[in-house]
Amino acid sequence: MKYTVVFHRTEEGISVSVPGLPGCWSEGDSEQEALENIQDALEEYLAAVKEMNQTQNLQH
After folding, report:
1. 6-59: which CATH topology?
2. Domain ranges of the chain
3. Going edge to edge, which strands form the sheet with 25-28?
C-alpha cells in the first residue's frame, strides 16, 4: 500500500508526516533520513492498528 508523506523543514532538520494516518510522523537530518525513518514509523503504526483491531474483535 502507498501513503502520501509530507515533509516539513524545521530548525532541527526535516519532519515528515503521513496525513492519512493521524499521529504517524518522524524526522531526520535530511529528506532521505526522514523518509527512511517514516517507513519504520509507518510499519509500527500499522502493526499497532492491526493489534488493536484484533484485541477489539476478541472482546466482542
Report:
1. Double Stranded RNA Binding Domain (3.30.160)
2. 6-59
3. 6-10, 13-17, 25-28
